[in-house]
Amino acid sequence: MAAGNQYHIPKVVLGSSVGQRSMSVLGFGTAADSSDYAVLKTAVLEAIKLGYRHFDTAFLYGSEQALGEAIAEALKLGLVGSRDELFVTSKLWCSDAHPHLVIPALQKSLRNLKLEYLDLYLVHWPVSARPGKWEFPIKEEDVVPMDFKSVWEAMEECQRLGLTKSIGVSNFSCKKLDNILSFATIPPSVNQVEMNPMWQQKKLIEFCKAKNIIVTAYSPLGAKGTSWGTNDVMDNQVLKDIALARGKTVAQVCLRWVYEQGATLVPKSYDKERLKQNLDIFDWKLTEDDLHKISQIRQQKIIVSVSHGSNPKFLEELWDGEL
Predict the structure, then answer these.
(1) What is the 3-state secondary structure (H, E, C) of 12-40?
(2) Which residues pair with 193 in a beta bridge?
């Protein structure tokens, strides 16, 4: 619901954050095939005007600098009162997922963003790669097993040093999370994973709820129009029928479904109208019948299959035989 020109977005409190940091349940994602500096900067400023306060980036995306410039401009223009009103997430790339490289990698992201601290820093994938290789997909010969305990200790040190208010992971299975939880002194606050009506992550959602880990959905619309995504979510007939019956868009049905599962979400859109539409999901509900129909949709993992399907070593490190 909009108040003036701004929408109210609900928040959740991160379990292991410094000072009980809260995060908007709907964020602005910046993963794109190409980061057009000017387009991204303009979109971030429009998003802030609409009420977005949660911005998701990663070193690999190449969007940190443009996001940082947009934030600096928003502060200068008075669109936000202070840095503390914003929630900024970035991610540790696989080639920096080595104990001695974690803190320097976060410091590099902070320099790109021109910020003194992050609100959330995530281990991007549960896989390490040879240092100095910043590419995606990762070549098979560059994949190396992650030293989870040492990498996580370095992540904890990032939080203790005040470089980030909270830490978490991305693309971690239940088994991988269990491993982290077995030795963590600061448990992960968030697990950011692919999640949409065609990859519903029911087991993972239940596991994370039980462990007080917030799930954030990336590609909640299937990443349509990207090299790693699919049109299958937005073109799904079940979702189209529900959208028609509710007087909503397919995107709004998908986003509302993710929200009703208790997850947070970071869809990517640089279009002002779609940014508005994405916010219009909090004052209506899907019916029991809608939810039942969505639960019957055939499940299909998209992102990893498309991006790393030809790299069995990466997939082996990623899943440990578990989906």
Answers:
(1) EECCCCCCCCEEECECEECCCCCCCHHHH
(2) 217
Instruction: Quick: pLDDT tens for 224-237.
Output: 555 555 678 999 99
Q: Could you say which of 7, 61, 117, 121 is catalytic?
A: 61
CA distance 237 to 8: 31
Is 61 labeled as catalytic in the residue annotation? yes
Which tokens go with 302? 């998209």
Percent of the chain with pLDDT over 90: 78
124 is in an annotated binding site: yes
The label of the residue with tokens 């320097």 reads 104
Burial of residue 268 (CB within 10 Å: 0-12, 13-18, 19+) is buried
Report pLDDT digits (tens) over 274-291: 999 999 999 999 999 999
Q: Which residues contact 267 (CB under 8 A, 6 or more apart)?
A: 26, 29, 220, 221, 251, 255, 278
Residue with tokens 């992540």: 155
β-strands 143-144, 128-129: how paired?
antiparallel
pTM of the model: 0.93
